[in-house]
Amino acid sequence: MHQNQSESAYIDNPPISKPWFAGMNYAGHTYEWLPSDTEENFQQLVQNFEHRQYFRNNGWDQPGAITYKINSHGFRSEEFDPAAASLVALGCSHTVGIGLPEEVTWPYLVAQTLELKNYNMGWGGIASDTCFRLAEYWIPRLRPCAVMVLPPDESRIEILTDKQFHRDRAHTIASSWGLEIFKNSDTFIKQWILNVENQRLNQLKNCLAIQQICNQHGILCVIPKDLDQAPEFRWDPEKDGYARDLLHPGPKRQKKIVEKMLNDWRQKIT
Amino acid sequence: MARVMENFVNPPQHLASEFRGKELFWYSTDTQDLYNQNLQNPTTFNTLKENNWIDKTICYRFNSHGFRTDEFITKRNFITLGCSLTQGTGLCEEQTWPAMVSEQLGIAVWNLGVAGASNDTCYRIANYYIPLLRPEFVVMLAPDTQRMEVFSKDRRDWPHPVNFANDRQDKEGWFMKEWVSDERNLEIYSEKIAKAIAYVCVQQGIDFYYYQDAWVKNTCWWTKNNDYNSRARDLQHPGEEINSNLARIIYQDIDNKNTYASKSV
Predict the structure, then answer these.
(1) What is the chain B residue with the closest CA to A190?
(2) Cβ within 8 Å, pair A212-B191
(3) On the CB side of B261, how many CA atoms lie within 13 Å of its CA?
(4) Which residue range(s) make up the domain with B222?
(5) pLDDT tens for residues A21-32?
(6) Using a CB-CB distance cutoff of 8 angstroms, which residues of chain B are in contact with residue A194?
(7) What is the pTM of this model?
């Protein structure tokens, strides 16, 4: 108990400020819905027989079937205990498991297999830049046994701003969200988005930098390469199913990610 | 037996790529016009004289990859990364800190510094050349964090350099203004690149020595904290004395194994 209190004090009063991300707005509460898995969307979908049937088969046909328990630091994760053997998982909505119960998400299943605590640091809509910021702060503090990253879409880039007129303190910009939002705005970001080499390099830098953080602390790091390009990982809603929001892949694809992560992990330790 | 290294496929382009294989006597900010202007002004004439630049010839000799360094051959070497401070704008090659460190260590240097480079440029160059040139270690003097580069639709293989110090006004739009308005963007970005290059070195099993932008500014430029009048021929870059001081610090760090990793933990 004494140990937990002192460690908790360290986490709550860190020497440098905690990296901000949108999940901090949700810290310490349990939610029945989280963007893009909204009640309004769900009520519309259940009007359709096939969706209703699919949700029923998965046990998601009633509100409350899926909950998002967000820890005191803003993650859909157990509370952090630096003394525990843990897995840190980084990524976007596919890692959080938007529209899915926690028990079918890849971080949960990998942590269970490896008998580690599951510190899921994914958050919906974040960029690989955000993963780097979170990794830089949290990895040295939590000293997990393993770090696994499912890199977000490489078309996303993050910018930090303290300007009061912005609601959030870190913004993600993504070409996949439509170029029209850049109208009359910005030469730099338009150029950045129009050539995918910028996006590829940014993703690569973030992944290498996270690997370096792990390397410095002697932590095993798994970041699967080009997962999106691999045919077996292309999302086929018919075969893989889908999450409750219809925008994310379902439990079968999470299992494929689990297999890939564990396979890469085994290769690294041998 | 040392041999010339070949088989470089699609090497990264950079600001000096167009000078590959050339010898120039004036380069970048070190122009003949500027030199002649400075000769006419009594104050700048004195500075040129104090730094032994009157009628001195500087040869910028670029190898077949556009770097101010020897042709790459298979021999013991280390790599230096950075901008004009590393490339040695306004200095003879032997007056640059990479050449001095090389001399002290007795190992060849592949100086991959490029005038006007950003941290992004250093990363692209490092990621390509480190595995091929197999250096014993890498030293990087980080360029100004206000620089970035972006590949555009029309320039597929050669990114457009952006310098926020010059381009931060309206013409570059929202993103750039926001980017420079919060220094954390610059700090995080440069730290990320340092870590990425460090990991490229880890993959090759070699040490990485890194000097961040703030340290470089404090050590190399003329601030209230130093009284150097050591100037390169363009009077805009650090001169031989500052390079010598840099070389001494870097040599000591190499000797003491004060690597990036040892400083970061």
Answers:
(1) B152
(2) no
(3) 23
(4) 17-264
(5) 889 999 999 999
(6) 152-153
(7) 0.89
Is residue B118 situated within a structural domain?
Answer: yes
DSSP string of A40-72, one letter each residue = HHHHHHTTSHHHHHHHHHHT-SSTTSS-EE--T
The span from the CA of A18 to the CA of B209, in Å, is: 28
CB-based contact A192 B184, cutoff 8 Å: no
At residue B135, does pLDDT exceed 70?
Answer: yes
Domain residue spans in chain A?
2-269
pLDDT tens track for B84-101: 999 999 999 999 999 999
Lowest mean pLDDT among B4-13, B45-54, B188-197: B4-13
Judge: domain A2-269, CATH 3.40.50.
Answer: yes
Closest chain A CA to residue B193: A205
Helix, strand and coil in chain B, % to nearest 5: 45, 15, 40
Residue B222 domain-assigned?
A: yes
Instruction: Give the other-Cβ count within 10 Å of A62's Cβ.
Output: 11
Smallest CA–CA distance, residue A192 to chain B, in Å, is 6
Please report, for residues B191, B201, B209, B259, the alpha-carbon distance to residue A215 in angstroms, rounded to integers and kept in the order given. Answer: 15, 11, 16, 14
Residues of chain A with Cβ-Cβ distance to B193 below 8 Å are: 205, 209
Q: Which residue of A has its CA nearest to B159?
A: A198
Q: Which amino acid appears at position B81 of this protein?
A: L
Residues of A in contact with B166 (CB under 8 A): none
Inter-chain residue contact A160 with B182, CB threshold 8 Å: yes
Report how far apart, in Å, the C-alpha atoms of B253 and of each of A123, B86, B250 are. Answer: 40, 17, 5
> Which of B148, B149, B150, B193 to substitute to test the interface with A, most A CBs within 10 Å?
B150
Residues 193-222 of B with CB under 8 A from A: 193, 195-200, 202
How many separate domains does chain B show?
Answer: 1
Of B120, B159, B181, the CB nearest to A161: B181
Residue with the larger pLDDT of the pair B135 and B148: B135
Please report whether residue B155 resides in a domain: yes
pLDDT digit string, tens, across residues A34-58: 999 999 999 999 999 999 999 999 9
Name the residue facing B178 among A161, A208, A216 (closest C-beta): A161
Pairing of strands B60-61, A86-91: unpaired
Check whether A179 has a pLDDT greater than 60. no
- Residue A37 is predicted with a pLDDT of 96
Residue B246 lies in a domain: yes
pLDDT at A16: 63
ipTM of this predicted structure: 0.88
